[in-house]
Fold this protein.
Amino acid sequence: MPTLPHNFHIRKLVWRVLLVVLLLNFSEPLSACQCPLTTLSLKESDKYELIFKGKIVSVKNCEGKFGEALFEIDELYKGNATPKFTVLFECGGECAIGFNAGEEWIIYSRYKQINNALMDWCSRSRKFFKFDKEDFYTETYGNDYEDEVKFLRDSLKLHRLLKEEKKDDNNRNKLPGLSDTIYLLLGSIAAVVIFLILARRFKN
């Protein structure tokens, strides 16, 4: 029986090693991010403190631990928030998708502080896609974006947004106007006159 050349066995071994390496490389990204499955229900909504739909105005990339996405809220379904609200997010991580200015999102989140929330990429949050075939959330969640919005409107109702506090920092260095100056001057004169009258009475 003829024996196979030594080179044949080496080549066969090399091909097996390459096949294993390729399989490992292609299978790793598929199993890297594993978020628990969620369902569109009141029970799922109860897990979160803040739920809203809004557009991203601006994004600050991670300089420290978190990045920042400033949202302009269109509809508030749960929690308290001002019309412009900051969502903190982790830039790294296996399940991180990222935010971009101009995108519309439904955000399910919990408060980090009173004026911002912390995004969990494994929450039920989802991005709006213009083309249905691009919306991978539909297959994962079992419903499309419009169904999600309708459910939130019908089940949680629309909530009123808080008024944003106006900052008066610009008025701190303002010089008083003419009328203010006159009032201050008259007040000072009146105080001096009252002081002199009282001083005379005490002397007598």
About this structure: The first helix runs from residue 6 to 32. The chain is about 35% helix and 20% strand.
